[in-house]
Amino acid sequence: MTIRRRTAILLALIGLMLASGGCIGWFYGERPPSTWPFVTLTEEGISKDLAEVRSQNVAGVSYRLNLRLDPRKEVFHGVCTVGFRLQSTRQDLLLDFRGKSIESVTVNGSPITADLVANHIVLPRRTLGSGHNTVRIEYTAGIGAAGEGIIRVEDKDDGSTYLYSLNVPADAHRVFPCFDQPDLKAKFLLNVTMPGSDEDMRVISNAPMRGERVTSTLNGEDKTSIFLFEETLPISTYLFAFAVGPFVELKNSDYGRPMSFFARKSQAKLMEKHAAEIFRLHGEALAFLEGWFGLAYPFPKFEFVCVPDFPFSGMEHPGCIFYGEDPMLFRSQVSKLRLARRADLVAHETAHMWFGDLVTMPWFNDVWLKEGYATFMAHKTLEKLLPEVDHETAFFLRIYPSALATDITSGSSPMRQPLGNMDDAKSNYGPIIYRKGPAVLRALEYMIGADAFRQGSKLFLERHAFASGSWVELRHALEEAWGQGENSLAGFGRAWIEEAGVPEVRSSLSGTSGKESSATLTLTQDAQSNTKRTWPLAVEVCWLDRLGGLQSKKVTFEGAETTVLGVETKTLFSFANFGNRAYLQCRLDSNSRRYVLNHFSTFKDQLLRAMLWEALWTDVEAGDLSPRIYGEFVRAHLFEERDQRLLSSVLGHVATALSRYMIDGDRDSLAKGIEDDLIAACEDKKFGEGTRLLLLRQFIGLARSKRGLGTLVGVAEGSYDAFGLDVSMRDRWRAVTRLMLMGEKRADSLLDLMTSLEKGDEARRRVFMVECARGTVASKRRIFARFFEDKD
User: Fold this and answer.
1) Once rounded to an integer, what is the mean pLDDT over residues 735-763?
2) Which residue, 46, 415, 561, 679, has fewest beta-carbon neighbours within 10 Å?
3) CB proximity list for 441: less than 8 A, separation 6 or greater
């Protein structure tokens, strides 16, 4: 009987039992105790109940994988040998598998006829034993452009083919049968067999390679290459990875350890151009993080791979970090902002080697823990990697506006989100995980002190090394380091991690008229209207002293309001989050807003200036400040700024004001003025080339006047370069996209020009984006049809 036929019969029986009020689950000899999670075999994915049952019963997992890969084929053949210890054999055991077919299953040396139900292989309890068990499975799984266990990429530059796996968050069971949950860490032993004996062919995986050999048939033909790897240390299934193809390798040992950098061979020259800086970023990031954690890099090798058509910026596979090509290998002149983003990406993925890889969250409801920590530690690391950058301002602009824009809405979610099934884990990612997470960790560090935060982090990593640890276990370690007693951070965790939302905090001064010098400073936080609760909160509030200098004080909230008496000042300006110590929505009172609008140039602290820019924009969105007044303020003060991230942020807000909050004469007048300012700055060589390029790109994104669109036509044609700027093909495509979006009649002819100048997959993607900007119903229907139906 075939697997498919047996599965159909079993599903029919399940349907009959369910219809009659019964249920099929995992059983002891009798009905399991009511406290034991009940698992239904018909449930797709990996449910939390299933994961908890296996966590309590399964340990000591190992996988021996023998994969026979042919890049030309749509499927591959694999043999997976799973070893594990069982505490109890009172129930059947499920292995997860979402491949194409199963050829054979052997349990503890005996062949069985295994059932495949709802992407699970059912191992009958009668075949298992308490203690060590071994299951051997022969199977086939898919290779394809998307939606398969192994992803294939055709290099249009030289015709080469590349394969890679991407298992996060729970796609490992598309590649091999496994317990696909993060807390069941395992050791992996990988062997890969490939047709032919191409010397350029490489296989890169988590562990060091222990050998390669070439075999052939009796007549000396049909050669195959076999790549053999050492066994990994315990890692989660979503962190196991490999990449296959004619990669070029560069090596470096300048930073105290051997490192290898791989990229596809068609990108070898570009790789060599950037290799020195990429090696420096990784080497210095590793050194800093080893020092901060007080723990050595925990894995036996350190390699990184630029993977073609990689869907993410990076993925933290221990021993073989995967990166996308675009964030790492720049093909044209780039701004300092893009250079900083690359450094931030490297620091983030390297920090994961400790938070995420060495210690992994037990379940993806705590995914914020690894992502938030990696982002927060990347901020600390960047101070070493790029000492010339104002990292406090960069961290604020990169993290807080994005987090707050989501968290102030009624649709926001807690950082620690409920997750019933790993099939839904991908929906947990977003600004709350990647942005609120590091902001809350920064606030926690400020509350308990930097030393306690660092000691608690190290304690957590030491206790759970090569295993899993949750937020609760991290909280206990931080409480111990802080020394304030058990559960001293329980309230913090409930408010900031297990519930959604953010407080809105205002500060105001009273008791001074400009002649008096002593005032009362009042801070208030608005409770969430649906819960009436307030947040555990420590802030650094600032004001101007009698000489105009900035003064600040740490204030801890114990309710909705707190005061600071005897403030020496002659102005009514105050700001409730000086130094960006807390995560909150900081609002200006009317006196402070008026002072900022009239005296902005007197503020010299760069971080405070950035936060005031953002506070004014918050006032626009709240209806407390006219977008016209905001636009005039931008024109008056924008070019006092030199920070590229701040310029980009402010101009992004201006674009939103023009498209969303302004109409008719006010909008047209502001648009023309902003466009004129930007073009003048792009052509002014007193600004650095990177800043001029950034301003040109911002201009491309907001141009709407007749003159502005005419300049975009010049950019797209290649006739306008703002007096010598290196305008890339990407910039020209952006100009065409904006022209199409604005309904410019010359957009179609420019699209034809660009498609004649650039070919290949990248050009096809850009054409798709231009078509998305076409404002006709027929075009939208056609684009959506392609998006859902065209696999390429």
Assistant:
1) 93
2) 561
3) 372, 373, 376
Query: Going by DSSP bridges, is the β-strand pair 58-68/242-245 parallel, antiparallel, or unpaired?
Result: unpaired
Number of C-beta neighbours around residue 345 at 10 A: 19
How many whole angstroms from its chain centre is CA 21? 44
What average pLDDT does this structure show over 332-346?
Answer: 90
What burial class does residue 431 get, using C-beta atoms within 10 Å of its C-beta: 0-12 exposed, 13-18 middle, 19+ buried?
middle
Q: Name the CA dihedral angle for 428, 433, 435, 436, rounded to a multiple of 10 degrees.
A: 120
Q: Beta 550-557 vs 537-544: how paired, if at all?
A: antiparallel
Q: Is 55 left (phi over 0), alpha (psi -120 to 50) or beta?
A: alpha
Burial 207-234 (b: 16+ CB within 10 A, else e): bebeeeeeeeeeeeeeebbbbebbebbb
CA angle centred on 298, ends 297 and 304, rounded to 5°: 70
Q: Is 757 helix (H, G, I), strand (E, B) or coil?
A: helix
Average pLDDT (164-179) is: 97
Complete DSSP assignment for 639-679: GG---HHHHHHHHHHHHHIIIII--HHHHHHHHHHHHHHHH
Strands 303-307 vs 259-264: parallel, antiparallel or unpaired: parallel
* Mean pLDDT score, 650-676: 93
pLDDT in tens, 471-506: 999 999 999 999 999 999 999 999 999 999 999 999
Residue type, 167: N
CA dihedral 393, 394, 400, 406 (to 10 degrees): 150
Report CA-CA distances (Å) from 172 to 114, 176, 178, 193. Answer: 20, 6, 7, 19
Which residues contact residue 450 at a Cβ distance below 8 angstroms, ignoring those fewer than 6 apart?
A: none
Our CA dihedral for 169, 174, 178, 179, rounded to 10 degrees, sits at: 30
What backbone phi and psi angles, to 5 degrees, belong to 128?
Answer: -105, 160
Q: Does 218 have pLDDT greater than 90?
A: no
Question: CA–CA separation, 395 vs 372, rounded Å?
Answer: 13
What gap in Å lies between CA 259 and CA 282, rounded to an integer? 9
pTM of the model: 0.89
For residues 26 and 92, the answer to whether their CB atoms sit within 8 Å is yes
Residue 300: phi, psi to the nearest 5?
-75, -15
Tokens 């090798």, located at residue: 301
Dihedral angle over CA of 401, 407, 410, 416, nearest 10: 160
Structure tokens belonging to residue 353: 């080697």
Helix (H) or strand (E) holding 525: strand 518-526
Q: Which amino acid type is present at position 15? A: G
Query: Mean pLDDT lowest for which of 109-118, 368-377, 446-455, 760-769?
Result: 760-769
Q: What percent of the chain has pLDDT over 90?
A: 79
Q: How far apart are CA 451 and CA 175, in angstroms?
A: 43
Per-residue pLDDT tens digits for 419-433: 999 999 888 788 999
pLDDT of 86-101, one tens digit each? 999 999 999 999 999 9
CA dist., res. 603 & res. 596, Å (int): 9
* Radius of gyration of the chain, Cα coordinates, nearest whole angstrom: 29
Q: Per-residue confidence at 24, pLDDT binned at 50, 70, 90?
A: very low
